[in-house]
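Sequence, please.
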C-alpha cells in the first residue's frame, strides 16, 4: 500500500524568530514541532527536501525546516486516514498552535504544525 501522508518531528534548540513567508516573523519557542504533511505523490522527494533544507522556500514548513533539526519521521498509509486526522490527533494530544494556519491553507484545520515543549512519540492513528 502506498504511503499517503507523514509526520515530521523537528527539534528547535533555541527559541527564535523565523520569517514564515507572507505570515511574517513569528517567535518559535524551543522544543519539539510535529508537522502533518501530505505527499500522495513523491513522498521520497518531499522527505529528502525536509532533511536537506529546501533550496527555495515554497511551503510554510520550508521556513521552519531550515532552522529546526529533523529528529523523527513516520509514514502513514491511506487506511490510517489523512494528514488532517494526524493534525487533529496532535491537537488532542495537547499540542500547541504557534502559528494559526501553518500548512493548512488548503483545508479547514486550525494548523498542521503543533508544538510540544518536551519530546514525545509520534502519534499512531490505528
Ligand atoms: Zn488539514
Amino acid at each position: 500500500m502506498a504511503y499517503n501522508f507523514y509526520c515530521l518531528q523537528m527539534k528547535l534548540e533555541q527559541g527564535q524568530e523565523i520569517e514564515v513567508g507572507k505570515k511574517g516573523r513569528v517567535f518559535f519557542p524551543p522544543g519539539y514541532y510535529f508537522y502533518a504533511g501530505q505527499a500522495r505523490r513523491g513522498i521520497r522527494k518531499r522527505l529528502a527536501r525536509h532533511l536537506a533544507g529546501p533550496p527555495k522556500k515554497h511551503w510554510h514548513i520550508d521556513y521552519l525546516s531550515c532552522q529546526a533539526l529533523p529528529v523523527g519521521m513516520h509514514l502513514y498509509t491511506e487506511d490510517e486516514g489523512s494528514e488532517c486526522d494526524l493534525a487533529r490527533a496532535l491537537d488532542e494530544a495537547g499540542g500547541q498552535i504557534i502559528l494559526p494556519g501553518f500548512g493548512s491553507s488548503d483545508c479547514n484545520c486550525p494548523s498542521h504544525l503543533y508544538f510540544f515543549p518536551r519530546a514525545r512519540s509520534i502519534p499512531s492513528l490505528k
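Helices lie at 43-52, 60-65, 83-92.
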